[in-house]
Amino acid sequence: MLVAAMSNDHIPAPVEGSSSFAALESLRVKQLEEQTSALRTSVICAFNQLLDLKDLNTGVHSTRLAEWGMRVGQELGLEEAELQNLEVAALLHDIGKVGIPDSILRKPESLDPQEYALMKKHAEYGWAVLRMLPGFERAALDILHHHESFDGKGYPAGLQGAEIPVVSRIVCVIDAFDAMVSSRPYRKGLPYQEAVRRLNDASGTQFDPVVVRSFLSFAESEMSPVFAAAGTSVSSAL
Ligand SMILES: [Fe+2]
């Protein structure tokens, strides 16, 4: 029987301090690290599917946008732990919209002040959910601040400049770019060049100019192959 064959009776227990004990310990640590990493990936995927169920993902672009966010983060010299948070924040920044009524999420017309106030709550909702998950606390904070404005006129805290977490500043730019170029059932996305113009216009007011500069340094060259693969062109499909 397999269990009997694997019984400890036949395997001498490693002695503490011996080389086989150290090897076993390091194997155990490696296994735990792999399990933690797999669990983390599963949580991200599960939440992503939740966004899909609510039709809140921006389709084929979302993963690519996370990659762009990561590229900006690397250019800005973020450390590995921050890059991991950035990936989570880029993919799940709008997870709090799950708590917003569909009548507001899908309203084609402009929101009235009351509806807009409720919509803005999604940043706090996202933070409230993710902060409860061990290992996601920092990404939760980055999500909380992804609608702060560089000039302090954003929400929820009205943070300004470097007070805003750098991950939030990056997500803010790529999220805004995504919103501008993506088509919705009730409106067509802006052409690439117009989205670039608007990013530049709001650089230093809404957006961190360093992040905008970094993103635009590679945006066009990265984008063409993506849309070509989808059978569309940068100017018409966005
Ligand atoms: Fe958002």
Structural description of this entry:
There is one protein chain. The protein is mostly helical and 238 residues long. It has a single domain (17-237), classed as Hypothetical protein af1432 (Orthogonal Bundle), CATH 1.10.3210. It contains twelve helices and no strands. The radius of gyration is 22 Å and the shape is globular. The model is unreliable at 1-8 and 228-238 (pLDDT under 50). The chain binds fe (ii) ion (FE2). Fe (ii) ion is lined by residues 93-94, 122, 146-147.
Give the helices and strands, then pairings.
Layout: H1 2-5, H2 19-53, H3 61-75, H4 80-92, H5 102-105, H6 113-119, H7 122-130, H8 137-144, H9 166-181, H10 192-201, H11 209-229, H12 234-237
The chain binds fe (ii) ion.
CATH classification class: Mainly Alpha
| Second CATH tier, the architecture | Orthogonal Bundle
Task: Determine the CATH topology.
Answer: Hypothetical protein af1432
- In the CATH hierarchy, what is the superfamily? Hypothetical protein af1432
SSE pattern: HHHHHHHHHHHH
Poorly predicted ranges: 1-8, 228-238
Fraction in helix: 55-70%
Radius of gyration: 22 Å
**Cα shape:** globular
Rounded to the nearest angstrom, the distance between the terminal CA atoms is: 61 Å
User: Which ligands are bound?
Assistant: fe (ii) ion
Number of strands: 0
Number of domain modules: 1
Query: How much β-strand is present in the residues?
Result: under 5%
